[in-house]
# Entry
Amino acid sequence: MDDWRVLLGVAGFLLTLIGFVFTRAEKSAGITRELEQRTHKNELSIERMRGDNAEKYATKHELRETVEDLKKSINGRFDRLETKLDKESTS
# Structure
């Protein structure tokens, strides 16, 4: 009779232990999925920020090039105007 009680006690303990292990494994899997989702969202956010920064700096670079081209064009026109005025003043 005592052997059955010990056997039932050990079986109950093993079932409790197995239930605990499965519960922890499910909880860990849920936490892992949540962390993977958060990591994925963060990676997407970082990529968007990189794209925005690249676009922003590319725009600034293009703006600089445009301003330089405009300066060259204006200076060229003033040079031609000065040359024309010099020719007229010497004539």
The radius of gyration is 39 Å.
